[in-house]
TrEMBL record:
One of its GO terms (molecular function) is 3-phosphoshikimate 1-carboxyvinyltransferase activity. This is 3-phosphoshikimate 1-carboxyvinyltransferase. Keywords: Amino-acid biosynthesis, Aromatic amino acid biosynthesis, Cytoplasm, Transferase. GO terms for cellular component: cytoplasm.
Amino acid sequence: MSRHATPVPMTARKSGPLTGEAQVPGDKSISHRSLILGALAVGETTITGLLDGEDVLDTAAAMRAFGAEITEAGGVWTVHGVGTGGFAEPADVIDCGNSGTGVRLIMGSMATTPITATFTGDASLRSRPMGRVTDPLAAFGARAHGRQGGRLPLTLVGAADPVPVRYAVPVPSAQVKSAVLLAGLNAPGETVVIEREATRDHTERMLAGFGARITTETTNEGRVITLTGQPELSPQTITVPRDPSSAAFPVCAALVTEGSDVLVPNIGLNPTRAGLFETLRDMGADLTYENLREEGGEPVADLRARFSPDLRGIEVPPERAASMIDEYPVLSVVAAFAEGRTVMRGVKELRVKESDRIDAMAQGLRAAGVEVEEGEDWWIVTGRGFGDVPGGVTVESRLDHRIAMSFLILGLASNRPVTVDDAAPIATSFPVFEPLMTGLGADIARQTEPA
Ligand code: S3P
């Protein structure tokens, strides 16, 4: 959806110390899944802590279009689900805005129901590959008609007589895995998904929570996930944990701004999501997990991040990539303030996110005076050390929330201000980013006059 007719330029200036508590919003991945599985259960699911970012609101609107009743009152969301296979045919085009997760999971969830739906999104989403999802959905019997390269707008005709599928996911993608599992819900028999590298496992955990029969085995092929189709999903009461991918921004901001000490409470540390925090610690960050505990079967902690002037570049273990895939942009900013090279390999998925994130960060960092080398599947940032990043640039956010937020963090510790041409996309995942960061003491402001 092109909600943002007018760009919102935003500037970050040298700041510090950042202090206080950062209450980051609910997890985006879990929020999408709560709405979709709530819509596929029979009866009333209630959700608290749902992220009210644009991506998730688009998924809520889509679930209504497929027949679920969804309301919100006082921060509690109620979803009246229609049951597995119960989706109605939407009367209009489904607009998933900026959200790859939204569109791919929703396509999966309708692909084995005999209805037709047409999907679109904003310019970023319309440029992203959908064949990775429509190919396995075709194996269930669904038919997709998209633009060249399988791009949106795309019409999906759900299978009338779906067959279960055994599918080895060719790219490390939780979205593809989840689309196949959601399609498998309305296919008779066992759908099997095999992933060589472990990606975020929220769909598996949540399907089990809603009462589906699902098992995961680790074999020499990788993780083998087996789902028994056509369960009756029972409605749930869900508390969405806070998003580690959003926590990354105040954490990284605190590490690079002088004198900072920030607490980021209640962050989910699911091992399929927490790779950034391990990497920062490997770089010498003063980042601690306080009050480590289990909540709803997931490890949770309060993160404390303090100014860390002696960060050093490292080789990020490539096998960690899936567990921090959304965090490489902000890691590259931290790397700019470290001593030495931060080497990031096995990351070609970054090129098909909301933007080509390697290209977006490399161009902006170079303009800000930081050396970046790159190849199709890797990039290396040569840090300048704390206090020595020039900044003084305006960069493009390319309809990508994480690119916008990452460059604003850069501006908090570079010598001259950093402006992003459009901060509006931040509302897709972190609508309170600006007040939260300024509340900690960050000098971030919408720009009313030319820089
Ligand atoms: C997500 C999976 C990841 C991630 C995205 C959210 C999810 O994408 O980048 O922000 O919720 O499943 P891929 O699975 O395509 O890597």
